[in-house]
Amino acid sequence: MRQGKLVAFPTETVYGLGADATNDKAVAGIYALKGRPTFNPLIAHVTGPDMAGRYVEVTPLAQKLMDAFWPGPLTLVLKRRKDCPVSLLASAGLETLAVRCPKNKVAQDLIATADLPIVAPSANTSGQISPTTADHVKNDFGDRCPFVLDDGPCPVGVESTILLATQNPPVLLRYGGLAIEEIETVIGPVIRPNSDPTTPQSPGQMKSHYAPKTPLRMNATSADEGEALLGFGPAPEAVLNLSPRGDLTEAAANLFAMMHQLDNGRWKGIAVMPIPLRGLGYAINDRLKRASYKKDE
Ligand code: TXA
Ligand code: MG
What we know:
alpha/beta; DHBP synthase; eight-stranded mixed sheet; four-stranded parallel sheet; binds threonylcarbamoyladenylate
């Protein structure tokens, strides 16, 4: 990593494709490997609030959020410090930088041992389903990413929740692995610019994202001919079930792995049963909406 090479590593949310955040060439390598439009900024991963404070201006609100939820699936967008050594390419030219402290020992050890802030998007080709196992990463990148640290499946399974915390109250930029209700119990109301969880807010968040090759539709009550039913709650006819007992945390953890499994070319479509809009249900519906978006629609 110190030599500017890319290393895929586990986090509690999804596998990340990591690079030295202070090395422009290494950061550019991420965009190249992912085939990602360069206007989409990256998250810098750190070992904790102290390390974050070297790169961004930690507001009192941000400090409170870090104290409550780090390490964990919460990313904070804050103002870059004047002396911030993180590549401007990683911020895509913005005056802000997203920072996150992952709750995974391998990730923590990697950042601490490299002694570098590590920028890491999800370790998948742009537009593809996010990887929740090391095999997902290897199947996608193959020899193009020779370094993959394997720590088994990711327990959370959807990406981190993102808050713009330069202002108080903060603005929700992405629904994710930390439920917004949980955040609000600590800091009060968070601004949700649009109550529709399917509307993209982060710069560069494209409508079609997390897309399996097989067409996917939401809120299905049953499967049509040739379709695989992806269940939630009791559903004996489901090919796979995100959570037979209707648990949203379990469903989030299974989401990307099950989408990968059903996207095997054997099915004409993937029909997903309704997921309730509460807790992690917001993040799950957001990812499903993107996965079901068709460019010609
Ligand atoms: O759980 C996660 O967050 C995973 C793991 C690997 O940590 N990472 C991840 O990164 O999901 P990525 O690159 O797939 O998504 C980062 C999101 C993008 O939608 C981007 O627009 C937003 O964060 N973002 C990054 N920096 C930002 C900034 N300065 N202002 C606003 N949004 C930002
Ligand atoms: Mg991603």
